[in-house]
Description:
Elements: E1 2-3, E2 6-7, H1 11-20, H2 29-37, H3 41-47, H4 53-61, H5 66-78, H6 86-98, H7 102-114, H8 122-134, H9 138-149, H10 158-166, H11 173-187, H12 192-198
Antiparallel strand pairs: 1-2
Amino acid sequence: xxxxxxxxxxxxxxxxxxxxxxxxxxxxxxxxxxxxxxxxxxxxxxxxxxxxxxxxxxxxxxxxxxxxxxxxxxxxxxxxxxxxxxxxxxxxxxxxxxxxxxxxxxxxxxxxxxxxxxxxxxxxxxxxxxxxxxxxxxxxxxxxxxxxxxxxxxxxxxxxxxxxxxxxxxxxxxxxxxxxxxxxxxxxxxxxxxxxxxxxxx
Length: 202
């Protein structure tokens, strides 16, 4: 469309034009969260030829958007498209977790569990994983159950974690198998009355 000598594109045409030029669009919040959940966020930034680094950094440092803090923090921690700076990367990931981003809470908990970037600390791992699990993060729920089955954590939390997993929904076969193993393991450690209570509808 041409108005007063200026070319205007409809939204679909604009997207097509940008794609033809090789311009990468910034990720939507939902798209970025799905990339983080599937742990493909760093690969995506690399596959986009690192074109979005400045935009990502601005949304992390200036706008302080939790999902972008997490993304940029992970990029810094592992030197993806930016010079490696593990300390600053960790600070950004922790900031995303403290803002309540479930994916950030889960990953911080996982790093404490694994001793990645930070010293291994299972008490902190359980704290962050529990917070993420309470917000519905399935990865955190399963990881927390697996910690309990390794005799780490308090039996008083078995009922809550069993309830989360008993009512969870996933199409992922591997995750489904992990949930099944976790439920069986937790059930073997719980009194019958508590188990029945945990199976009741949410």
